[in-house]
Structures are given as structure tokens and as C-alpha cells.
Design the sequence.
């Protein structure tokens, strides 16, 4: 039942700080979201890593096999190689290509994360070849083995343009740690996932070799796709935060109520009666409105006199349904036809049934302290159930209002309005369920002295 964005979760803390080797790329967003500046700290030792220029290919076949050939060449010199790919599927594919060439290697991805520490420990040794996803082993120093520095240190080969430059810099940063030598290089093609060339016939012709394309154009296309990906991710984070800001006030109110109940706050008889009166007032107003409409219809000649009996049966059915759903499983209206015409009489009668139900539950439980505990738990359950339904509804509402953008409507404004209306509806539903839980629950005290409650 708990739902919060990372941004709002972090902002709940009095103090906030963080460290990353790639934060400078996100400094504007961090200041806009959290009001925090990013400070660059110099490296402990001068950086010796060489970041070579990216290599560009028309298709994945050339991209992968060129990378395999370069890995073989480096492996023959004894220099350790770390190959970084975007997905588990790609790591498995590259591993099969290395197996075809009889190159011993380790694979580090979600399928064998258990061996992560052991694989990382050996990734910097002479002749080591490690194939890993972008997430695997991130933030871990790969220590170089004896004689590796003389060979040039760790070589990082990245295959495929990643969703953002931060991820690429993190991969490059696996080499050249703490002043060690090393180099990094990326192999990029039009078939990288970020390009989505399968949805573009023109790009597919380049990939298939039906149309010529230069490396500069490939670079421009791929980099533009990455730029769009970064902008899309940033926009999604902003939208997620905006949606959650709407929910924040509602969440604060609900959590404050829950905390009071969990801390043992008493839900007094006066409060229960007040809630019940409000519920009954809403029902009676609706009840009275139907009566007024029917009377208005008869005055205009739309109803016949013999429809009065039908109307009375309709009112009786509505009243009985309300009693069964909210007050008691026993029906005994005791109201005449004339009583049905008076909203005040109906309201007084329903409140009488509420008082009777409260007295019955109090007598059934016997102990006053146990009764207060029951009322508190019944209230808490109503609040929790209402909150869970509201969160689920608002999650679906995000997708519902998103489609309205095509109709030139302000999506966030629509979401705010409907979220507010749904919160008001939830408040009413919670109040109804509080009374239902108190009056309609089957309450027993077990031999262990504990309350056993079956809620309606």
C-alpha cells in the first residue's frame, strides 16, 4: 500500500548527499529536482586511461565480429579484456562467438551473479577475458595482476550505444582506476537497440547494404537517438515526480491518520456517530432527490396514481439495501408509507439502528478496552482498503489521461482534477466502510483473550 517516487523519498530526509563518478552529466537535473549543487572532486591519482574514438558499423554482424577479432588480438598479447554489452542476450551471443574461436572467458550477468566477486577478482589478470552487462560488477575496482600494467592495463570494449552517456562513462571507468593504465573503446552500429532500426525502412536498407552510408552519418544517427533517449528519460522522471507531487498531499493525510491509529489514538463514540450521521445524510439526500423527481414527474402527468405503490416499494427496497449493506443484517424497517415521505423520519430511524448496532457490539465484546481496540482496527482497515484502491485507481488514471494529450488537453491539469475528485470519493467510501466494519463485523473473544474479527 506504500507508493512513492525515489525523488520524494529522498526529499523526506533532512540531509541529502551522494557520490558518483558521472554526476556532472546530471547536475542541472539534480539542482532542479533537489536544489543540490554538484561539486567535482579531483581524482586521487592522474588519469592514464585512453578513451579511443568510437568505431561505427552498418550492422550488428560486422560490429560483433570486429569486436571478437580485436578481443582475440588483445588476448594473444596477454592484456586482460572486459567486454561490456547492454543485455543478458547480447552477453550470451558474444560468449558463443568467443567459444567458436576457442577463447576462454567468463560471463558476468544476471544469470550467474552469484559468482560476481570471484569473476571480478580475476578480470584484471593476464589473458583474462570477461563478458559482462552494464550493471554487473559496477563500482568495483578491477585490480590488475602482475605484469598487466606493462601490457597496457585493462582494455574495456563496449558494444552498442547505451541509453545515456553516463552509463557509457561508467563502463569506461572500469579501466584506469587509481592511476592504472588502460583504454576503452565503443563499437556502435545501426542495429543497436537504442536506434530501433527495425521500425525504419530507410535505415534497414543501410543495414542490408542496399544503400550506402558513411560513418559520419551513422555517428550522427546513433548519437541523435541517444540524445532523444536521454531527453525521454529525463522527461519521464519529471512527469513521474509531477504525478507523485499530486499524490504527496493525499499520502501525508492518510499516513498521518494511520500513524495516530497505530499509536493507539482512540476513536471516540462522538466521532463514530458524527461519521454515521454524515453517511446517512448523503443517503437520505439521494433518497429524497429520487422522491422529488418522481413527484415532479407525476405533476407533469408522467406518472399514474397507481404508481405510488410502485414508488413505495422502490423506496423500501433502497432503504432495506442500505441497512443490509451498512448497518445490520436484520431487516425491521417499521416505517409506514407516510414515514417514507419524510427525510427527517428516515434519517432518525437509521440513526436509531446505528445506536442499536453500536450498543450490540459493545455488549458482545464486553471489555471497554477491547471494544476501543476493535473500533480502532476497524477504522484502520477502512483507511487502508480505501488507500489501496485509490493508489490503484490513480496508477490507471496516469495512462488514461496520457491519451488526452492528442486532443490538445493539459494532461497534468486533467490528472490533478480527477485525482482530487477521486480522493473526495475515497474519503466518503472510507467513512462508509468505517461504520460497516464496526456494525457488520462478526466479533468474538477467543480463549486466549484476543479479539477475532471477521470483517464484512
Sequence:
Amino acid at each position: 500500500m506504500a507508493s512513492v517516487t525515489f525523488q520524494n523519498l529522498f526529499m523526506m530526509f533532512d540531509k541529502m548527499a551522494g557520490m558518483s563518478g558521472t554526476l556532472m552529466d546530471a547536475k542541472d537535473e539534480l539542482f532542479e529536482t533537489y536544489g543540490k549543487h554538484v561539486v567535482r572532486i579531483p581524482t586521487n591519482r592522474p588519469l592514464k586511461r585512453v578513451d579511443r574514438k568510437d568505431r561505427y558499423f552498418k550492422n550488428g554482424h560486422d560490429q560483433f565480429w570486429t569486436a571478437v577479432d580485436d578481443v582475440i588480438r588483445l588476448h594473444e598479447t596477454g592484456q586482460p579484456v572486459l567486454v561490456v554489452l547492454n543485455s543478458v542476450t547480447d552477453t550470451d551471443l558474444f560468449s558463443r562467438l568467443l567459444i567458436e574461436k576457442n577463447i576462454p572467458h567468463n560471463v558476468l550477468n544476471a544469470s550467474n551473479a552469484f559468482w560476481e566477486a570471484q569473476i571480478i577478482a580475476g578480470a584484471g589478470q593476464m589473458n583474462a577475458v570477461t563478458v559482462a552487462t552494464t550493471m554487473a560488477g559496477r563500482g568495483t575496482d578491477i585490480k590488475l595482476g602482475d605484469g598487466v600494467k606493462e601490457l597496457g592495463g585493462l582494455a574495456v570494449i563496449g558494444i552498442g550505444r547505451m541509453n545515456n552517456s553516463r552509463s557509457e562513462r561508467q563502463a569506461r571507468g572500469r579501466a584506469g582506476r587509481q592511476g592504472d593504465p588502460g583504454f576503452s573503446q565503443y563499437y556502435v552500429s545501426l542495429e543497436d537497440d537504442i536506434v530501433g532500426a527495425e521500425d525504419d525502412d530507410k535505415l534497414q536498407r543501410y543495414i542490408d547494404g542496399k544503400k550506402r552510408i558513411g560513418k559520419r552519418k551513422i555517428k550522427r544517427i546513433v548519437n541523435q537517438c541517444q540524445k532523444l533517449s536521454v531527453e525521454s528519460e529525463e522527461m519521464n522522471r519529471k512527469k513521474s515526480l509531477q504525478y507523485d507531487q499530486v499524490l504527496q498531499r493525499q499520502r501525508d493525510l492518510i499516513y498521518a491518520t494511520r500513524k495516530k491509529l497505530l499509536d493507539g489514538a482512540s476513536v471516540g463514540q462522538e466521532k463514530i456517530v458524527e461519521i454515521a450521521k454524515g453517511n446517512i445524510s448523503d443517503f437520505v439526500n439521494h433518497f429524497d432527490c429520487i422522491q422529488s423527481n418522481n413527484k415532479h414527474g407525476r405533476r407533469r402527468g408522467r406518472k399514474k396514481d397507481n404508481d405510488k405503490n410502485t414508488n413505495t416499494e422502490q423506496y423500501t427496497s433502497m432503504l432495506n439495501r442500505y441497512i443490509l449493506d451498512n448497518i445490520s443484517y436484520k431487516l425491521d424497517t417499521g416505517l409506514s408509507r407516510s414515514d417514507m415521505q419524510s427525510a427527517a423520519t428516515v434519517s432518525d430511524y437509521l440513526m436509531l439502528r446505528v445506536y442499536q448496532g453500536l450498543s450490540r457490539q459493545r455488549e458482545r465484546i464486553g471489555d471497554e478496552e477491547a471494544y476501543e481496540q476493535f473500533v480502532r482496527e476497524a477504522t484502520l482497515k477502512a483507511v487502508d482498503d480505501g488507500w489501496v484502491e485509490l493508489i490503484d485507481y490513480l496508477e490507471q488514471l496516469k495512462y488514461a489521461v496520457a491519451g488526452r494529450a492528442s486532443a490538445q488537453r493539459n494532461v497534468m491539469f486533467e490528472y490533478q482534477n480527477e485525482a482530487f475528485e477521486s480522493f473526495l470519493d475515497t474519503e466518503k467510501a472510507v467513512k462508509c466502510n468505517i461504520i460497516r466494519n464496526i456494525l457488520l463485523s462478526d466479533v468474538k473473544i477467543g480463549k486466549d483473550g484476543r479479539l477475532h474479527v471477521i470483517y464484512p
The mean pLDDT is 86. The domain at 50-213 is CATH 3.40.50.300 (Rossmann fold). The beta strands are 50-51, 55-57, 81-85, 106-108, 129-133, 154-159, 182-189, 442-445, 451-454. The chain is about 55% helix and 10% strand.
